Amino acid sequence: MKVNILKKIGLMIFVGMGYLAHVHAASPLEGYWKSVDDRTGEDLSIIEVKKMPDGTYGGVILHRFAPPGGVVLTHCTKCPEPYKNKPLVGMQILSGFVEDPSKPNSFIHGKLLEPKSGKIFEGKGVLISDGRRFRLRGYVGVSILGRTHVWLKVNDPKAEINKK
């Protein structure tokens, strides 16, 4: 009898731990991403994406790369308030993204700030290539009127920064 009770308790603990691990597992969207200019192919930024306390996803710039032969953009000079003339490193450029309940690995209802132009776009995205790429679509009004960027997942942001 005692053995059966101990087995049941052990099983409940095992199942409970599995449930907690599933509940607290990080989303594949969370982590470090390298943004790349869709026109030139040049590296732009390293961004850290996290799940926010309200359940949405947000992304903050950790590093800006200098363009070849150019000067790194350090402040959001063309951005609207409250971003205007603020440093880009530490700035949240991705906000409000939520998982699309009807499409796995898809995210909707987000906002994207493009530091170079200072424009804020509505956004959606999908994880592709086994979660190693995040295809973001920024648009105004309807998604057909927009641009797509692909971010690349980065395991070690310091190594990416030191490559340059």
UniProtKB/TrEMBL annotation:
<feature type="domain" description="DUF2147">
    <location>
        <begin position="31"/>
        <end position="152"/>
    </location>
</feature>
<dbReference type="Pfam" id="PF09917">
    <property type="entry name" value="DUF2147"/>
</dbReference>
<protein>
    <submittedName>
        <fullName>DUF2147 domain-containing protein</fullName>
    </submittedName>
</protein>
<dbReference type="InterPro" id="IPR019223">
    <property type="entry name" value="DUF2147"/>
</dbReference>
